[in-house]
Write a structure and sequence with these properties.
alpha/beta; Rossmann fold; binds magnesium ion; six-stranded mixed β-sheet; about 525 residues; 3 domains; binds guanosine-5'-triphosphate; two-stranded antiparallel ribbon
Length: about 525
């Protein structure tokens, strides 16, 4: 693009030079003719021509200067993006304080601190990303000029993201180069490493997507997804030392064509991060011929220029936009952690009450309907789940939704359904325990479990039952919790609990007596 503009400027200069010569001769003739009439007129004419010439020359110089400047002016980031990033970071900070797990909270706070340092200092996060063995670590080693990471022919050499500080000529500020594990690795942990790599890529200010051939599907999909989300990316065709010029150009052309509209042509660049040594024959001064390994230095010129040009021009915009995105992602991560912690605590509440129910029914077998109608256990469970979700709920409200739940369970025939499901299970798997109140105890515990799960969903979704109201929510939970393996495990645990309670109850009087 720039090349063609230069050629055009040169062609125009040649035309202009010809025209100038012709003009010069004409001006001379005109001057002589005027001088014959009046010397003053001739002088005025010359002065006018001189002024026009100076103005044209100034315009031409300016044009060349604009064309010749290596970079257009840097783009300033919009103020509102910077402010929005600040607001998001503050919101994230508020959410993080509610995280209970100390080590997770410390990690989130560390991420927030990094975010704030990145805002104060000019630091660019450049993440090197791509399939296994494309040469990501080799590229980082070459950029840094020293070996910071192991490189191997096999995939899966880099196991975790690693950050290295780098300075780049012509770029004001620090570049933080992040190495990532490869995409689409097979075997254990490959998928987890890929998830980590994608996570790091999502947070990059600038992405270096390394490939060592034309794009495969496993590369095209993440690259285009990231680029479409607005992630600034340079596609690096590595290992070009292995290719003859013609093949290198063909692959570059193909990459550019496939990425039309996704990655600009100038941002697809060839490099050789770690050229393979070649055997060459050298003639010694004594005339003998020796074969030695010739080690070529890395060839990164095009890439370094491109990174510098992008960071100089768009660096601040990229940084601002990305600070906003990272603050948003951080807030979301903290929210997810809180949701998970609450779910775990709420789950523990439900577990506690389902086993209390099992124990109560087992020791004094009362009809299911009586237990439901009494409902004290269920009401207590609702209050405790509400507390986990930080919801203030009146005892009247608790009673109301508790009653509504019992009515819906009855209306849907879930008491019978649960009892027959459990009875069937006892007949087939727990024959010895079928006597006494075991079936009823387990059935009631199971119903408490279903009701508890439904209440967890209700509070987790801001006190909403979702589409179809409480009835649909209950049916969903019944479906989710009626798998044979789950029921089997549930019944096994329930039996163990009631038996141990019974054993304890049996031991007590004896203990007192002795
Ligand atoms: N011929 C040639 N080989 C290269 C070049 N760059 C890297 N390699 C080789 O490619 C292999 C993989 O390089 P790595 O840098 O480990 O690749 P990686 O992408 O970090 O791999 P993982 O960490 O496993 O994802 C090594 O054997 C390197 O020597 C290059 O420019 N030319
Ligand atoms: Mg690596």
């Amino acid at each position: 693009m720039r090349m063609s503009r230069w050629l055009l400027a040169l062609a125009l200069s040649a035309v202009a030079l010809g025209a100038a010569a012709w003009l010069f001769v004409s001006i001379g003739e005109m001057h002589d003719r005027l001088a014959r009439h009046s010397g003053t007129l001739a002088l005025v004419f010359l002065a006018l021509v001189g002024a026009v010439a100076v103005a044209s020359a100034a315009a031409a110089v300016r044009l060349f200067w604009v064309l010749g400047r290596t970079d257009p002016r840097p783009i300033k980031p919009p103020e509102d993006v910077i402010r929005a990033a600040e607001v998001q970071a503050q919101e994230a900070e508020g959410v993080i304080t509610k995280v209970r797990d100390e080590s997770v909270r410390a990690d989130l706070n560390a991420e927030l601190a990094t975010l704030r340092v990145d805002r104060e200092r000019r630091r660019f996060h450049v993440v090197v990303f791509g399939t296994g063995s494309a040469g990501k670590t080799s590229l980082i080693n070459a950029l840094l000029g020293r070996d910071v990471g192991a490189t191997e022919a096999v995939m899966g050499t880099t196991r975790h993201g690693e950050e290295h500080t780098h300075t780049l000529e012509g770029v004001e500020g620090t570049v933080l180069l992040t190495d990532t594990p490869g995409l689409s690795e097979f075997g254990q942990g490959g998928a987890m490493r890929e998830a980590e790599a994608r996570d790091l890529a999502a947070r990059a200010d600038l992405l270096l997507f390394v490939v060592d051939h034309d794009l495969i599907r496993a590369e095209y999909e993440p690259l285009t997804a990231l680029a479409r989300q607005g992630k600034r990316s340079i596609v690096v065709l590595n290992k070009v030392d292995r290719l003859v010029d013609q093949d290198r150009d063909a692959i570059l052309a193909k990459l550019r064509e496939r990425l039309t509209g996704i990655v600009p042509r100038d941002d697809v660049v060839p490099v050789a991060a770690a050229p393979r040594p070649t055997l060459v024959r050298v003639t010694q001064p004594d005339g003998s011929v020796q074969t030695v390994y010739d080690v070529e230095p890395p060839d990164l010129g095009a890439l370094e220029d491109r990174i510098a040009a992008i960071l100089r021009r768009e660096g601040d915009v990229l940084r601002a936009g990305n600070l906003l995105l990272r603050a948003h992602l951080l807030g979301k991560k903290a929210q997810e952690q809180i949701a998970q912690e609450r779910r775990e605590r709420a789950q523990a509440v439900v577990d506690k009450f389902q086993w209390i129910t099992a124990g109560t029914v087992f020791t004094n077998p009362i009809p299911a309907l009586d237990l439901l109608a009494n409902g004290a256990v269920q009401l207590q469970m609702i209050s405790e789940i509400a507390t986990v979700y930080g919801v203030e709920i009146t005892s009247n409200h608790v009673r109301m939704i508790g009653l509504q739940m019992i009515q819906t369970l009855l209306k849907l025939g879930m008491v019978e359904a649960a009892t027959s499901l459990i009875a069937g299970l006892f007949k087939s798997s727990f024959v010895g325990y079928a006597a006494g109140g075991a079936v009823q105890a387990v059935s009631m515990a199971y119903l408490t479990h279903i009701a508890g799960q439904t209440f967890i969903e209700y509070f987790a979704h801001g006190q909403s039952w979702g589409d179809g109201g409480m009835q649909a929510a209950l049916v969903r939970q019944f479906d989710l919790n009626s798998r044979a393996e789950f029921l089997q495990e549930f019944a096994k645990q329930a039996i163990a609990r009631v038996l141990s309670q019974k054993a304890k109850a049996g031991r007590h009087p004896a203990g007192k007596g002795s």
